[in-house]
Design brief:
5 helices, single chain, 238 residues, 6-stranded antiparallel β-barrel, globular, alpha+beta, 7 strands
């Protein structure tokens, strides 16, 4: 079983995704990460957990055209598989993936928080294997178990709908757990958006989220904003 993660950033967190926007995408290989054992409502398996690389072509619609190309991705869907064949994916809000059981806006906002905290390094070869694995585990844990009512108390790799260990069943060491706890600790923090998250969904392959960094506004744009705050965030109850 090969698992993937894809979170793609586009223009603005407030911008909607046109329902007709589509792109062909295929998996091209893994990046930084580690093989771990995961358990979830549909089964358990040893899987590669970390950066996965995808190529996106044949965009339909302006948002799809903006993300065509090669991307490092992280996955929301542990029940299906990546594929080396091009398949058509529909662009959607991150809250709408995975398609069979959408995570909803609160969990999508929590994933937004950990992306904004991690920054662009999590998408590059400059990150560590432990960090890439921990980031993917954080995404899966949020998708399955995060509760905005219970906050960080709802997060645990040892219990809940989603659990994870070393391949031999032992608990993770400090390398992965320190990174995991740091990412999870960013949920609910106040910061400007570093990414815009867009879901990529397919009925026959793993749903993804693809992430492109939001560029910093130039001097003219900042002047035009005046006293307005350009990074208003909807906060979660934690």
């Amino acid at each position: 079983m090969k698992t993937c993660f894809a979170i793609v950033a586009l223009v603005s967190a407030a911008a909607g995704i046109a329902s007709a926007d589509m792109v062909d995408m295929r998996y091209t290989g893994g990046g930084k990460g580690r093989v771990v054992r995961i358990s979830h409502p549909n089964g358990a398996a040893n899987v590669f957990t970390g950066q996965l690389k995808h190529t996106l072509i044949n965009p339909v619609g302006p948002e799809a055209a903006a993300i065509a190309g090669d991307h490092v991705t992280f996955c929301t869907d542990v029940s299906q598989f990546v594929t080396r064949d091009f398949l058509q994916y529909t662009l959607t809000d991150a809250a709408n993936v995975p398609g069979g059981s959408p995570m909803g806006p609160d969990r999508a906002a929590a994933i937004q928080d950990i992306y904004d905290f991690a920054g662009v390094n999590i998408l590059t070869e400059g990150t560590s294997n432990d960090a890439a694995a921990a980031f993917q585990l954080a995404v899966w844990e949020i998708v399955h178990d995060y509760s905005p009512i219970n906050g960080l108390a709802s997060i645990s790799l040892a219990s809940g709908l989603f659990t994870a260990t070393k391949t031999n069943g032992d608990a993770f060491g400090s390398g992965i757990m320190t990174q995991f706890n740091t990412f999870i600790g960013a949920i609910g923090s106040e910061r400007a958006n570093a990414f815009t998250l867009v879901g990529l969904t397919s009925g026959v392959a793993q749903d993804q989220i693809v992430a492109i960094a939001v560029p910093a506004p130039g001097p003219a744009a900042l002047a035009g904003l005046g006293a307005l705050c350009f990074a208003v965030r909807r906060r979660k109850a934690v």
